Structure formats: C-alpha cells, structure tokens
Amino acid sequence: MYKRHRFPSSLIQSVVFLYHRYALSLREVEELMLIRGIDVSYETIGRWSLKFGPTYKKALRSYQSPASDKWHLDEVCLKIQGKYYWLWRALDDQDQDIDILLQPRRNAKAAKRFFLKLLGKEGFIPRVVITDKLASYKAGLRKLSVSPDHRKHKSLNNRMEGSHQHVRKQERVKRRFRDPIHCQKFLSLSLTIRTCFGRITHKLKASAKKVHKHQALNIWYQSTQTQENFV
Fold it and tell me: Over 181-200, what HEC string results?
C-alpha cells in the first residue's frame, strides 16, 4: 500500500490523523510538519487523505464495539458548491457514530435510503429510534415495514445536536466542503476517529483521562500498522 512513496508510512499515518482528528486545514498541517523539519506540500497531504482514508476507516471500525439497540438520528444541512445537502447521521446511546450518509434531499426516500444503510451495516433492527419531529423518519420506517419504538422529541435528541459541533467546526476550517463525494469520505473517517476517542466526561480524574487517550491512540496505531503489515 505504501510502495513508491517517498515518505515513510508513519509520517503518512500521522498527517492523515492530524487532518481528520482536529479542525485543521491542509495548509496548517503542512506548517506543523515544516516546524518539525519535514517539507511536505498540502496537496500531497490531501492526496494521502483521499487514498488512505477509506482503508484507515475500515480498519478502525473493526476495533469498534457493536452499536447498541438505541439509536439517535438527525440530519445537518451543509452547503456545497452553492447547493444544499443533508448529512444524515446516526449515533447509539454510547455516543458511538454508527454511520453517515450525505444526500441532496430531506424526504422519506432519503430517510429510507439511510435506514437501509444502517440496517445493512449493523444487521439488526434497533429497539428504540430517537429523532426530531421530521415526518420523513416515520415515513421511511413505514416504507421498510419495520417498527422500532420511535420516539420523536427535540429534547430527547440533545446528544445528537451536540455532536454536530464537530461537523460544523470542520466545515468552517475547510471554508465549506467543495465536493459531495470528498465530503462524505472526509467526514466518514473524521467521525470514525472521533468515535475512537469518544467523549471524555469532565468528572473523570486526570489519570483516567490520560489512560483513555492512550488507549485511543493505541487503537489508531494498531489499525494503521495492521494495514501496513497486511500489505
């Protein structure tokens, strides 16, 4: 996978991680590398992200625990190339991102397509689905002839609303996404890495937080090194 690349695999893994984990632009990652004495262009970093990102995402997801049977669903509007798109997202009650799907519509057909993707990935029908009051969710479930406990209330979905902040941060730094396909691929890996690190509660002791972060980094290193060794 890393053959014919001038830079070592460890550097490629590091810059892809920085670009997707934090709200940094390609040029900011380029500057961080330059501070460390490594001259790599932002165009190269962008190509590495597109090339290796899907492989890293697949490897990381193999380390994730299965989603719980309680799902939170919501959609957030993104403007790409002057057009509005809807990023459909699903979290379980452990704040683990289940999946995302960028679509140009916010209707029953789009909801059905997203449910199909979720059910195909997880392989089971959730016990509870929590959404806002958008009618498309109910219509999408009806089209699939599945009937989980569907709870519709804005305050019940605060967990999902708060998780959109990460997407908005990335959108601002990137000065809006410029291509729907790239947006889907970028956010898919970015949110998978975010899930790997999870939400650290402020009530934890500093030592527990440090252990959690080291565990998350080890998962990242193991998943990327596994791909390197496999190839």
Answer: HHHHHHHHHHHHHHHHHCCC
